[in-house]
Amino acid sequence: MNGIYLDHAATTPVHPEVARVYTELLTSTYGNASSIHGPGRSARKLLDDSRATVSGLIGARPEEIIFTGGGTESDNLAIFGTAEARSDEGRHIITTAIEHHAVLNACKRLENRGYEVTWLPADREGRVSPEDVRKALRDDTILVTVMAANNEVGTIQPIREIGGILKEHRATFHTDAVQAFGEIPVNVGELGVDLLSASAHKINGPKGIGFLYQKNGTKLVPPTSGGEQERKRRAGTENVPGIAAFAKAAEIAHASLGQRRERHESFKEIMTGTLEKSGIDFSVNAGQARTLPHVLNLSFPGTDIESLLVNLDLAGIHVSSGSACTAGSVDPSHVLAAMYGEGARELRNSVRFSFGYGLSEADIRAAAEKTAAVVRRLAGQ
Description:
The protein has helices at residues 16-28, 38-57, 71-85, 101-112, 130-136, 159-166, 188-191, 229-232, 240-255, 257-278, 305-314, 334-340, 346-349, 361-379, and strands at 4-5, 65-68, 92-96, 116-120, 141-145, 172-176, 195-199, 210-214, 283-284, 295-299, 317-318, 350-354. By secondary structure, it is α/β, with parallel strands linked by helices. The protein folds into 2 domains: 4-12 and 257-379, Aspartate Aminotransferase, domain 1; 16-255, Aspartate Aminotransferase, domain 2. Strands 2-8-7-6-5-3-4 form a 7-stranded mixed sheet, sandwiched between helices. Its cofactor is pyridoxal 5'-phosphate.
């Protein structure tokens, strides 16, 4: 592919080792993991081994992992599954204004069904306050869902502190860790969560595969009906090649966590340093927060996001304005709106640069130089 791809928070290229596992298994392991014959048992072993791998990476038990079709399905299973399982105990849900649309829209749908949702704010750094969670809790609160790290600006949320608060409450605690898993350490016991979502395509794995961690004893009603796969929690024949590829991608990602963190932090320094030397006007959104190493969201005063993205793409710099699920929309970022308020200039001039596999320091420097040239021309600087 021509150009420099800096949209790894949207999706990532498949790692060559992951691709090898995936393509080999497509033809070598074709059995249904629910079948008792030889090909079925071979598929079952791969499924069990993969479950053990990913559960071990987050400090969970293998039986606590439900393989799904991706992060959105995992979020929906957690939210709708909890709402149905606990509807007789209460109908109050707490979430935040900066969640991914897989959580936002699921909660909005529950509002339409008669549930009451409290939407917590975020500060100017994109951080949710644990104290706000505490104050919002009620006797009829059945679910609290707060993302582990924001997909647009990268702010890492205080999940451990929120988990500590919820130890004294009966609400189920879910975190969307799709952007965090494989980028920062994630341990379900330390975080104190009951449910956790993750996805393969964010960590150089294939699209269409994810998992939901369900702590033993956590109530959950599957929103779909069918066979008894995944311990009756997610019907449908398991995608064994995809699941095994996900496990491989997760192994690779976690083995290189420290190395990639340092590399991506250096990419941020190169990007911002090069832009500073160019003399253009810019600022870092969530610049004072603890953020994911691979996400850098920048505001360029005097520019408009649509023309900025188009011109960057023409220059061979492939980035986005935020969530890939709304990249084709002209609506301003709901995350930046929550941080800065409706009508703030950052909503119309901010770009997310996100780093990952295959990039070099030379790529980042070149991308920054081309970005500076585009911004200078568009802003008349």
